[in-house]
Amino acid sequence: MVLTLGATVEAGRNFVIRKATIDDILCVRTMQMRAMSLTGARYYSRGEIDSFLRHIGTLEEAIVAEGHVFIALDRDGQVIGSGGWSRLAPCYARFTKAGEIVATGGNPVPGVATIRSMFVAPELGRRGIGRAIMREVEVDAREWGMFLLRLTAMLSAERFYRALGYAGEARGHMRLPDGARLGCVRLEKLIAAHETATNASAA
Fold this sequence. Notes:
203 residues, alpha+beta, Aminopeptidase, 6 helices, 27% strand, globular
C-alpha cells in the first residue's frame, strides 16, 4: 500500500489522504463492510445489513476508475476511511420501486454529482477522518466543475452529513430484491455557484 503517492498530509494529523486506485479496492471494501456491519448495527437489523452488502455492496470498481474516490491511510498504510463522488448512477438505482425513495439516480445535469462510498473504520469515528475526506471530495468536485452534490444517506450517517451542510427532508426506504427495506434520507449541498462550476468545467 503506497502512502505518499498523491497524498494530502496536514500537520498534526496521523493519517494521509490520497485517491484510490483499482489495486486498493479489496482493502477498501474490507474496511467498508466492517464499518457497515458495526456502525450500521445501531440502525439496521443483521438481516438488513447482510442484504445491503449482498445486493448493493460498498464500492463499485467503475467509480474508482472515474478517479474521484479518496481513501485515508494510517501510519501503517491501512485503509481507515473512504469517500468520493461520481456522475454514474448508483447500482442501487436499479432497485427503484414506485413510491420508494431509494437513490439519487443518474446525474444527467452538468455540474451535479453523487457522493459515494463514504465510510470510516468503526473504531476511529469522531476523529476527523470523515470530515477530512469530505473536504477533499468537495474540492475535487468543484475543480471538475460540479456545483451540486447529492447523496442517499443511511440513517447512521445522517447527522454527519448535516453537520457538513448537507440538507434535505426526503425520507424513505431503500428497497432491495429480497424485500429488505433500509431507511434512508436524501440530502444535497451546493458547493459552488452554478456559473463558477460551468466555467471550471469548460476550462
